């Protein structure tokens, strides 16, 4: 599918992790069509430089998804309607690390930070909440009894997969709640396939990491290609809880709708994960049920 982005004049998009890689490519594509883009990033030096290069009405604001205090402060700075919230930023680590709030870092940044951000902004979002996941959700498992890896031996790639599966379950449950509230806002998701973006794959296994790095050099598409599924999920003809990815073996190529499988379709786990996420973040779904 070749995506033709319609005119975005008068619309606002927030892109987390928008200073580099897929986030920057997504922001640049929307800005080129007239959108005001807010790059929500930790490093303001890089953020401001990216905003200057993107041009138009691009701006950079401070957001650390590993800190709920930072998430709340960012949300307080957002006034007026937001057409698109694009939860793009991601973390991957080869060792057990924790966020400022004590969460396992991959779950904390990839899922809980975005969960809190989306719910805090939901009263201002008018069109879509788009969350970037990964094809690595396949084979992943949500351990509700040990989300933070306090009892299990830590497996970096397993923790990453858990966080990316959490992204999809969040999207599914958010859409269910939006529909129940009578909201026209859609929750969608995407994955970039194999993209060379500067994001370092860290599995905790040296040989596998080297193999993945070699594969990235040989097979991966660039940030613009990796952004295509995100853009389709943002402005394309996509249903609520729809999942977009590359068309060529799920690795690269034009963006298309994909069928989810396995644990990503588990509505019971989606509901339970939502409830746990509310307790951990102290942030709740803010729209009244219709």
Question: Can you tell me about this structure?
Answer:
The structure is a single chain. The protein is of the alpha/beta class and 290 residues long. It has a single domain (12-281), classed as Rossmann fold (3-Layer(aba) Sandwich), CATH 3.40.50. The protein has eight helices and eight strands, in the order E-H-E-H-E-H-E-H-E-H-E-H-H-E-E-H. The protein has helices spanning 21-32, 44-54, 68-77, 105-121, 156-180, 206-219, 223-235, 267-281, and strands spanning 12-16, 36-41, 59-62, 82-87, 125-132, 186-190, 243-248, 252-258. It has an eight-stranded mixed beta sheet, sandwiched between helices. Helix 2 (44-54) links the parallel strand 2 (36-41) and strand 3. The radius of gyration is 17 Å and the shape is globular.
Secondary structure topology:
Blueprint lengths: L11 E5 L4 H12 L3 E6 L2 H11 L4 E4 L5 H10 L4 E6 L17 H17 L3 E8 L23 H25 L5 E5 L15 H14 L3 H13 L7 E6 L3 E7 L8 H15 L9
Parallel strand pairs: 1-2, 1-4, 2-3, 4-5, 5-6, 6-7
Antiparallel strand pairs: 7-8
Features of the shown structure:
290 residues; 8-stranded mixed sheet; Rossmann fold; alpha/beta
């Amino acid at each position: 599918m070749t995506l033709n982005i319609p005119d975005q004049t008068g619309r606002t998009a927030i892109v987390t992790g928008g200073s580099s890689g897929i986030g920057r490519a997504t922001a640049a594509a929307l800005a080129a069509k007239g959108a005001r883009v807010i790059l929500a990033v930790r490093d303001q030096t890089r953020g401001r430089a990216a905003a200057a290069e993107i041009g138009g009405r691009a701006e950079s604001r401070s957001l650390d998804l590993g800190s709920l205090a930072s998430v709340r402060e960012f949300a307080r700075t957002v006034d007026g309607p937001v057409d698109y919230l694009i939860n793009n930023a991601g973390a991957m680590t080869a060792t057990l690390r924790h966020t400022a709030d004590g969460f396992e870092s991959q779950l904390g940044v990839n899922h809980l930070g975005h969960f809190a951000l989306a719910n805090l902004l939901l009263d201002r979002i008018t069109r879509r909440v788009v969350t970037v996941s990964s094809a690595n959700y396949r084979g992943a498992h949500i351990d509700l009894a040990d989300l933070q890896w306090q009892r299990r031996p830590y497996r970096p790639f397993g923790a990453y997969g858990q966080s990316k599966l959490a992204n999809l379950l969040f999207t599914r449950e958010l859409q269910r709640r939006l529909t129940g509230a009578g909201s026209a806002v859609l929750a969608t998701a995407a994955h970039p396939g194999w993209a060379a973006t500067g994001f370092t794959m860290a599995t905790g296994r040296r040989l596998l990491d080297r193999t993945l790095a070699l594969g990235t050099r040989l097979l991966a598409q660039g940030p613009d290609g990796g952004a295509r599924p995100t853009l389709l999920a943002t402005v394309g003809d996509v249903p609520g809880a729809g999942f977009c990815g590359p068309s060529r073996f799920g690795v690269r190529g034009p963006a298309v709708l994909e069928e989810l499988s396995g644990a990503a379709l588990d509505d019971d786990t989606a509901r339970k994960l939502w409830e746990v996420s509310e307790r951990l973040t102290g942030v709740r779904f803010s729209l009244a049920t219709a």
